[in-house]
C-alpha cells in the first residue's frame, strides 16, 4: 500500500516537472529485409528522468488499417528486462528460420501482426533493457516494478504530447508473462492521473484509456500462478513426486520440442558471451521456440541495424534480448487488486491464456478471475476462426473476458498467430470473440 500511495502522489508531480525531450527516426529500410518496409515504423527515445539521463527506446508501428481511428496499444514484453523488438509476439516482422552460418539473418513481413488492426508502441523497459539507457549507470541499480511504472507513465504522457494525432484514439495497455503483471498496474495509475486532472476541471488526460489486455499473465505466484501446475499436467491424477520427474516436457509449450535451455541461457539469455564469432559454433535447434531470439541478438548487434533504427552511438554495450543479471526489485508481489479495481470501475479487460503452457496454466489464471465472483454474461463456449475452434471464452460482468488460445504456449500469441490476431481484432473492435 505504501508503494501504491507513493505512485499516486509522485506520478502527477513528476509529469509536471519533467521537460519534453524526444528524438525520433522514421525507419523505411531494415538490415536483412529486401525493399522498403510495408508499414510505417518510427523509433526514438523519450527522456523520463532528467537527473539520471534516463531515456526509454520505443518502436512505433502505425496501424495498417485506419490509424486515425484504430486503437493505440502499448505492448510490453515479459521478463522483466527483456527487449520489445519488433519480432516478438505482436510485432510486424519475423525472421526467416534458417541455420545461422555467419551471414546476415533475413527478415520477412509478419502477415499476422497486430498492426493490421491497431497502432502499436513497443517499449524497451525498464531502463537498461534493449536500447534504453541512462547517463548515470548507477540508476540501473534502482529499478523495479514501481519505478519502471513511473517511467512508463511519464513516457506515455510525453509520447502523446509529441503525437497529438493519436490522443483521441482508444488506448490499451498490454503485455504477456511478467508484463502481464505490470499492465494492470500501469493502467490503474494512468486512470488515476486522468481522474486527478478531470477533478481539477482541466482536460481529463492525454490518454483516452479504454482498458488492458494480458496474455498468460504472472499475477500472484504465491497463491495462484504456481499452484495449478500439477493439476494441469496430470489432470489431477498424478502426484507431486511424479510431477517433479517430468523433465522431458517443454514447459513453455507442452507439445513443443525440448529446448536446450542451458545453451540458450548461455548464448543469449545471459551475458556470458562476448564474441559474435562464437555464435556459429553452437546453436539451438531451429524448431526450438526461442530460435528467433537467438537470431535477434545477432541482428540487433549489427552496426547497420543500429544505424537504421537510430540507436545513439555509445549508449549501450552489447545488445541482449534479456538482461537477467541486471538488478531488479520485484516490489509488486500481486496484481490482483489492480485487476479488480479496474474492472469494477468498468474498464474493459481481456485476459487470455495459451492452453499448452505449464508455467502459468490457464487453470490458475481462471481461478483468480473466478475469485472476483463476477456474474457471467456469456458462459464458457468455443470461439471460432474458419469454422474451427480457436479456443474457449467466457465473459463476465464489468467488461472482463477470459479466453484461451488453442495450441498456444506461454507466449500464447506466438504459437497460433492467425487465431491470436482474430482474437485481438474482435476484442479491440468491441465485438464478441
Features of this protein?
433 residues; alpha/beta; Rossmann fold; twelve-stranded mixed beta sheet; two-stranded antiparallel ribbon; 20% strand; disordered N terminus
Descriptive overview:
By secondary structure, the chain is an alpha/beta fold. The protein has two domains: 2-239 and 329-428, Rossmann fold (3-Layer(aba) Sandwich), CATH 3.40.50; 240-296, no CATH class. 30% of the residues lie in helices and 20% in strands. The protein has helices at residues 2-17, 145-162, 178-199, 221-225, 229-234, 240-244, 261-269, 291-300, 303-309, 336-344, 362-370, 417-428, and strands at residues 22-27, 41-49, 54-61, 72-76, 93-95, 107-109, 119-124, 133-134, 171-176, 209-215, 348-354, 376-385, 388-396, 400-405. The strands form two sheets. Strands 1, 2, 3, 4, 7, 8, 9, 10, 11, 12, 13 and 14 form a twelve-stranded mixed beta sheet that branches. A two-stranded antiparallel sheet has the order 5-6. Helix 1 crosses helix 3 and helix 2 (145-162) crosses helix 3 (178-199). The model is unreliable at 1-21, 196-204 and 261-281 (pLDDT under 50).
Strand content: 15-25%
- Classify the fold: give the CATH topology of the largest domain: Rossmann fold
Biggest β-sheet strands, sense, barrel:
12 strands, mixed
CATH C-level of the largest domain:
Alpha Beta
Distance between the termini: 36 Å
| Structural domain count | 2
